[in-house]
Amino acid sequence: MNEVERACQAALEAIDLRRHLGRESWADVLDKIATALDAQRDEVLAVSSEETALTVEELSPEFARMTGTLRMFAALVREGSWVRAAVNKHRENPAESIGPNHDVRSMLLPLGPVAVFGASNFPLAYGVCGGDTASALAAGCPVVVKEHPAHPRTGRLIFEIACKGIAKSEIQRFTQPSSVLNYVRNENPQDLSVATDLVQQLEIRAVGFTGSRRGGMALVQLANEREDYPVPVFAEMGSANPAYVTLGAAARRPVEIADQLADSILARFGQQCTKPGLIFVRDIDSSGPLAQRLAERFRAAQGRDMLAPWIADAYRRRVQECIDTRSAEVVARGGDRPGPRGATPMLLRTYWDDWFQHETLQEEVFGPAAILVGCGQAEEENGFFGATFQGHLACSWFAEPNESALVQRALRSHKEMFPGPGRIAFNSVPTGVRVAHAMVHGGPFPSTNRPDTTAVGPFAIERWCRPVCFQNCPNELLPPELQDGNPLNIWRYVDGLLSRE
Amino acid sequence: MNEVERACQAALEAIDLRRHLGRESWADVLDKIATALDAQRDEVLAVSSEETALTVEELSPEFARMTGTLRMFAALVREGSWVRAAVNKHRENPAESIGPNHDVRSMLLPLGPVAVFGASNFPLAYGVCGGDTASALAAGCPVVVKEHPAHPRTGRLIFEIACKGIAKSEIQRFTQPSSVLNYVRNENPQDLSVATDLVQQLEIRAVGFTGSRRGGMALVQLANEREDYPVPVFAEMGSANPAYVTLGAAARRPVEIADQLADSILARFGQQCTKPGLIFVRDIDSSGPLAQRLAERFRAAQGRDMLAPWIADAYRRRVQECIDTRSAEVVARGGDRPGPRGATPMLLRTYWDDWFQHETLQEEVFGPAAILVGCGQAEEENGFFGATFQGHLACSWFAEPNESALVQRALRSHKEMFPGPGRIAFNSVPTGVRVAHAMVHGGPFPSTNRPDTTAVGPFAIERWCRPVCFQNCPNELLPPELQDGNPLNIWRYVDGLLSRE
Questions:
Q1: Residues 153 to 192 of A: which have CB under 8 A from any B CB?
Q2: Among residues 232-291 of chain A, which lie with CB inside 8 Å of chain B?
Q3: What is d(CA B69, CA B199) in angstroms, rounded to the nearest whole number?
Q4: Residues of B in contact with A437 (CB under 8 A)
Q5: Which is nearest to B131 in space by CA: B436, B448, B438, B446?
Q6: Which residues contact B57 (CB under 8 A, 6 or more apart)?
Q7: How would DSSP label each residue in A176-244?
Q8: DSSP secondary-structure letter at A104?
Q9: Euclidean distance between CA atoms A496 and B57, whole angstroms
Q10: At how many degrees (to 10) do helices B56-79 and B41-52 cross?
Q11: What is the interface pTM, i.e. ipTM, of the complex?
Q12: B72, B98, B224 member nearest A434 (Cβ)
């Protein structure tokens, strides 16, 4: 048995553990992991900063998000209503029932062991103990994490700390920590065998992935073609995140908006999946002051190291592809940074008609670059201004209060539907994702392959579950969530109405 | 433009209509369709009975389920909470927020036009105005239905009636009925071009399918390989639906259980996706009286016509495949029915060790057949008795009250998880699906490709939606579901808590 097989075998030990432990002890596992991480915070930040070339200042909020998310899911498990329990009892008047008058009760149950492929750019919040792991564990699924070759030391350290935390929970009475959370090494970025092997293990019942479209879609295909049966892959693959600046907003707040955008684009050196990579302005000449300020900010930006040499290579290649269309020109470039991981901030410019023709200008450039797209009055009036031909994680609207009709028209005619983004930010940038019920971190293809889900917030737990219905089941055989008298005091759909009865 | 292209173009007209109409008028569209169908009930029943060889008595409850489901979704739209609205306001204390302190609000929005491929075996409940159409329309998605070659006259009649109903709703003020619901002909079962064409239309954003695994998975592949981007397919593909009869239950209630099973297997001549096709008994000799009664019932059953000649061919082929394993023998056969659609009820028998070896004995036989599987004490004690190697829509347990520990063990160790069924029926049969929140009509592959969803009940509406988040959005630009003050008075997650505030 190789490392992947051993990890998946171990995971089988824990598939039923949430039930045995009960919700309080299960929630405590997540809390104990967060506590253990907090105790070694400085060490985690130092190691991850060294490996990723992100600063400790950049990584600190991400650390808080990682532990905050673990604790949020602990609270969700403790409260218990997340299972979407539904109870339909025998009707006294059978004529009111559509179909036979059975007693039916349903709730979400965990799918089984989950494989997690973390992100290069968020070694903490999308890493070994990031959102996918936290939500899958909360659901009751054992997790096997594949090492990310861009930060193996960070991954191993977090795994080691998490195991210490788990060992302090009640789990130690039943099994070893590695049944609940395991880790398989993959130091060499050229070696795809670990990923391939992991997705095809029979024990693995779902996959979480954050990374490139190529990588994500390769996993989707492998998972669809498994010998036993297809398993779901939730792949978050990044996006270009268009920002739309109306004529009014560009005239009234050119410097303010340019600064908001520049801060957002250049934060973490452009290596965020929600970076606004396309900036649509109604009239590039009228928007002169905005464009000028943006160019100044890019020229003032320093060159830096990117997350990994292969990511810097890809960045330079994508920028060059855009320039090679001959439809986009460089309007500002920042400082250079020599070496294999070094890169230069780049601001490009094109016009709607050209942008429209070139897919290469429509897709994400991962790194410190953005493309200004000049639009005309016609695009604005037809609502095309708001149109996106590809799905995105997020988009931004910068508009004045008196331009609501224009925004409304654009939203109604296109954005919410075809394919549109998962999140629409108004007079604010999409970077910086609040972890809450109302957050949607997801969106139509190619930003993800599953726009019906979110990777952030409490609802992320539903990805690792499926509903199961119990028909005419004796009360003592039902999970407590579905029993008469609602012993867990959770919200349930009782005969169609939300209730805690 | 061919018929498919015209239908999809027309659907584009209606993608925003739910918003314009508001929830009351939108709900009324569904009610008006139900009313129009009720007005021509006898005609629909007569035509569908002629085409399908199902009796008017068999089709009558299905008619009630079709109109009941339309009205259930109308009520859901009227009430409005189904959109899963979530509101997270700015926190007064930003430290309580994980990530930036934005105002974020989200709800489910429709995906866009949906293609519906109805079932051969339920011309009404899974037909032109069946569950997929009703739930997609309720969500706000225009629907294009592909004709089923097994009952084109029924399909055309229902479509014509539905259009009359829609024309009486407020929709006529905005567009023609065919924008909301359309129908493309496909009379020749050999002609797959209509299906292929429909799934690949750019306008189509999701697909509902009920039918064979081969057909369903072909659509899944087409939808995944679309030129623009992959769209979701919700394919319900049938299953073998194992029934487990314990030693105690077989000893105490042999005739009662045999009759329950025989009624379920032979209803609608075995042509139900929830038919219990595998009957596991602990000890086939101790279960003698049960097996005997079941055999009697099969011998007394008449031969009948099946839904279509190609379905009768497939039935005969599948039964022969099972016999050809030489591991299953015929224990009872019912009456013969000559002609291309005629078929004979068949009861087969095998033993656990043989069944375990032959995939062909594990898979669905669509039609009036069932396989008795004899198990030993070891299977029961190891919980293997309850194991299913494939996913199923449903399974049944027949057990005595003093056998709870055995059932519990089997459920815990396998059924809920690996891969298991979508519904577990206790001392009752899986045929007869109650339409309610707690129903799960779905299950792991190969019974469906999306075990996270249900095709029956209010939650079926969520298949046609994705969540969209509005960040820092001016109140007047928000959909009413998300506005301050909750003008629609719906249940929402407000700062993490369910509330109607």
A1: none
A2: 232
A3: 25
A4: 86, 88, 106, 493, 496
A5: B436
A6: none
A7: -HHHHEEEE----TT--HHHHHHHH-TT--EEEEES-HHHHHHHHHHHHT-SS----EEEE-----EEE
A8: E
A9: 29
A10: 130
A11: 0.97
A12: B98
Closest C-alpha to A14, from A137, A164, A130, A117: A137
Could you tell me if B312 lies within 8 Å of chain A, comparing CB atoms? no
Residue A414 has pLDDT above 80, yes or no: no
pLDDT tens digits for A54-110?
A: 999 999 999 999 999 999 999 999 999 999 999 999 888 877 788 899 999 999 999
Q: Cα(B397)–Cα(B356) distance, rounded to whole angstroms?
A: 20
**A63-76 pLDDT, tens per residue?**
999 999 999 999 99
Contact B36, B194 (CB under 8 A): no
Instruction: Judge contact between A220 and A439, C-beta under 8 A.
Output: no
Mean pLDDT value across residues A357-374: 95
Inter-CA distances, B152 with B148, B183, B184, Å: 6, 11, 10
Q: What pLDDT score does A20 carry? A: 86
To the query of whether residue B321 is one of the catalytic residues in this protein, the response is no
| A298-332 confidence digits (pLDDT tens) | 999 999 999 999 999 999 999 999 999 999 999 99
- Give the residues of chain B that fall short of pLDDT 50: 415-416
The string of DSSP codes covering B455-477 is: SSSGGGGGGGEEEEEEES--GGG
Phi-psi region of A18 (alpha: psi -120 to 50; beta: other; left: phi over 0): alpha
> Residues of B153-169 as b/e, b for ≥16 C-beta within 10 angstroms?
ebbbbbbebbbbbbebb
Sign of CA dihedral A121, A122, A128, A133: negative
- Nearest Cα neighbor of A358 from A495, A240, A205, A213 is A240
B334, B295 Cβ separation under 8 angstroms: no
Q: Determine, for residues B433 and A99 on separate chains, whether the beta-carbon distance falls below 8 Å.
A: yes
Which residues in chain A have their CB less than 8 angstroms from residue B463's CB? Answer: 452
Q: Tell if the CB–CB gap between B16 and A97 is shorter than 8 Å.
A: no
CA distances from A122 to A148, A213, A262, A271, A412 (A): 11, 17, 20, 9, 34
Alpha-helical (H) ranges within B267-348 are 288-300, 309-324
Residues of B in contact with A100 (CB under 8 A): 432-434
Contact (CB, 8 A) for A362 and A240:
yes
CB A158 within 8 A of CB A125: no
Candidates A285, A366, A280, A284; CA nearest to A322 is A366
Identify the CA nearest to B464 among candidates B85, B95, B131. B131
CA B108/CA B11 separation, integer angstroms: 20
Predicted pLDDT of residue A415? 42
Compare CB distances from B19 to A412, A420, A474 and report the shortest one's residue. Answer: A412
Interface test with A, best of B272, B412, B437 (most A CBs within 10 A): B437
Structure tokens at B438: 């707690």
| Structure-token match 């009930």, residue found | B41
Read off the pLDDT band of A386 (50, 70, 90): low
For chain B positions 418-447, those within 8 Å of chain A (CB to CB) are 418-428, 430, 432-440, 442, 444-446
- DSSP H helices, B87-243, are 131-139, 152-167, 177-180, 193-200, 213-224
Instruction: Please report which helix (H) or strand (E) contains residue A49, including its range.
Output: helix A41-52
Compute CA A269 distance to the chain's CA centroid, rounded to the nearest angstrom: 19
Length of chain B: 501
pTM flag (> 0.95): yes
Return d(Cα A349, Cα A370) in angstroms, integer.
Answer: 8
Q: Burial level of B447, CB count in 10 A (0-12/13-18/19+)?
A: buried
pLDDT band at A390 (very low <50, low <70, confident <90, very high): confident
pLDDT of residue A385 exceeding 70? no
Q: For residues B212 and B221, give the distance between their C-alpha atoms in angstroms, rounded to a whole number.
A: 14
